[in-house]
C-alpha cells in the first residue's frame, strides 16, 4: 500500500463528505488536535516508572479520545448521532483531576512550566491543547461543531496542568512558583 495519494497536491484535502482547502479552519482545528496527540505520545514515552502507570493508562485513553475529537470535526455536515465525544468524557477528566490534586502541594501562586522532563512535556501538552481549543472555538463560529469537543479540550488542558504537577510530586520535585506573583490561589474544601 502506498501512503501517498497525490490528491492533495493542489492544496485540498478530503474530509468526511467532501473536500476542503488544506488551510481551512476545519483542517486547522483537527490538525492542531493531531499535533497535541503527538506530544501526548511523547509524554507517554517518558512514563517508564511503575509509579506513573496509572497516568500512562489515562494518557493512552486520552490519545484515543483525541482521535475521536478530530473525527467529530472532520465532517462536512454533522449529525449528533455520529458524535464520538460526549459529556461523560469531560466528567471523567474532572474526576481524574480531583483525585490527582490530592497528591499535589497546595497551590498558592502561579507556577512556571518545568520540573521533571515529563512535567515539562505535559506543560507543552497543556499549551498545545489550549491552542487546539482556540482553533475549535474559531471553527465553531463558522460552522456547527460538536460542543463537547470544545468542552473536552478545555478540561483536558486543566488535566495536563494537574498531571504535570502530579508527575513532579511523585518524583519529589517541587513546582517552581512565579515569584513576582502574590498568593492568588487556595484550596477550597
UniProtKB/TrEMBL annotation:
Catalytic activity: 2 cob(II)alamin + reduced [electron-transfer flavoprotein] + 2 ATP = 2 adenosylcob(III)alamin + 2 triphosphate + oxidized [electron-transfer flavoprotein] + 3 H(+); 2 cob(II)yrinate a,c diamide + reduced [electron-transfer flavoprotein] + 2 ATP = 2 adenosylcob(III)yrinate a,c-diamide + 2 triphosphate + oxidized [electron-transfer flavoprotein] + 3 H(+)
Keywords assigned by UniProt, alphabetized: ATP-binding, Cobalamin biosynthesis, Nucleotide-binding, Transferase
SUPFAM superfamilies documented for this protein: Cobalamin adenosyltransferase-like
Top-level enzyme category: transferase
Domain Cobalamin adenosyltransferase-like intervals: 3-167
Assigned EC number: 2.5.1.17
A UniProt-annotated Pfam family: Cob_adeno_trans
Molecular-function GO terms, alphabetical: ATP binding; corrinoid adenosyltransferase activity
Stored InterPro entries: CblAdoTrfase-like, CblAdoTrfase-like_sf, PduO-typ
GO biological process, one term: cobalamin biosynthetic process
Pathway involvement of the protein, from the record: Cofactor biosynthesis; adenosylcobalamin biosynthesis; adenosylcobalamin from cob(II)yrinate a,c-diamide: step 2/7
Family stated for the protein in its record: Belongs to the Cob(I)alamin adenosyltransferase family.
Annotated PANTHER family: CORRINOID ADENOSYLTRANSFERASE, CORRINOID ADENOSYLTRANSFERASE MMAB
Subunit-structure text: Homotrimer.
Protein name: Corrinoid adenosyltransferase
Provenance organism: Paenibacillus rhizosphaerae
